Amino acid sequence: MPDVHVAICWTFPDHLVERLQSISPNVHVVRADELIPREHELLNSDPDGAERREVSAKLDELLRDVDVLLTGGLTVDNFPSRIPNLKWIQGIGAGMDRILTVEGLRDEVVLTNARGMIARPIAEWVIGAMLSFAKRMPTWAERKRAHDYNRLGLATTSVQGKTVGILGFGNIGSEVGRIARVLDMRVLGTKRGKSGGRGDEAHADVVYPMSETDAVIEASDYLVIALPLTEETQQFVDRRRIGLMKSSAYLLNVGRGPIVDQSALIDALRDGKIAGAALDVFDPEPLPKDSPLWDLENVIYSPHVSGFVDDYHNRVVDLFEGNLRRYLNGEELRNIVDKEAGY
Asked: Known catalytic residue: 285?
């Protein structure tokens, strides 16, 4: 069995790194999780300095023989040319858009992602946000800060019988639909690859082709964005589509920020054209400190952490370990990304 050199580009506890190293004596694991962010920092602050040259030289030496990268969004600057033996990249999340857009990535490099791994935690975030709006939790939080016990004219609502529209009925969307149906909600979804017909699927009342997105938006009390970011989905929920939403509806985005026209969304939230938004992703990220979204009372915010649960590191290593064993045995890897489709 040939040696396999693995570079870890995301911070994991030592015991999990040791677990990967113990898979086989032919596996050689190196950590690049400190050098990579330091190189990025120095490239911005002192690109011609001695420390930057030293850090880059260490990184080049570390990566010279690497076959496999285990990485998140942050990766090595100019990595296609600096890792000549690279054969496989395992992402720690579902989205691989930041890797797919890297210039010079060789066609033969296999990409795998972590789709399905955190569908349940993200679905819990979505359901929690919907219930928070229905039960006026943001309002009660404001009243608590003001020591205001006034409860007149502020009846809560029930999600029972309400319609949740899910754009992107994949692993995450399906899990949102499953839980929503337990709450007696009507579930509509859209899915790429559907032909013209309207097909029923598990955990949804109806799943439509993407061509019927507008009808799903118009019918939704809660509109969930769970699409991957591709050329097709850039600004997919644009000003026109936001204008199709009910004034009583809420938008919840756990896909990617650029899928939604953020400027149009801010206008709709300010003007009361929609009731509110729960956002875990933004355009750009980090969300700029002067963004109006910070101060809008009808916005629930989290910093791209809807799937980041306390055992996330273990989940990633479980997935990667299984795939690494497959790689060593010459078997097909799980969760191979379709580079043309973008996910």
From this structure: yes
Q: In what order do the strands lie in the sheet with 186-191?
A: 206-209, 186-191, 163-167, 222-225, 250-253, 276-279, 299-301
**Contact between residue 93 and residue 307 where contact means Cβ atoms under 8 Å apart:** yes
Name the band, by pLDDT with cuts 50, 70 and 90, for residue 194: low
pTM here is: 0.91
Catalytic residue among 18, 41, 285, 331: 285
Distances, alpha carbon 269 to alpha carbons 272, 300, 303, in Å: 5, 12, 19
Q: Which residue has the tokens 């009507």?
A: 186
Is residue 304 part of the annotated active site? The answer reads yes
Q: Mean pLDDT of all residues in the chain?
A: 94
What domains can you pick out in the chain, each with its CATH number? 4-117+310-328 (3.40.50.720), 119-301 (3.40.50.720)
Distance CA 187, CA 204 (A): 5
From the candidates 52, 115, 203, 304, which is the catalytic residue? 304
The phi, psi pair for 224, rounded to 5°, reads -105, 125
332 carries an active-site annotation: no
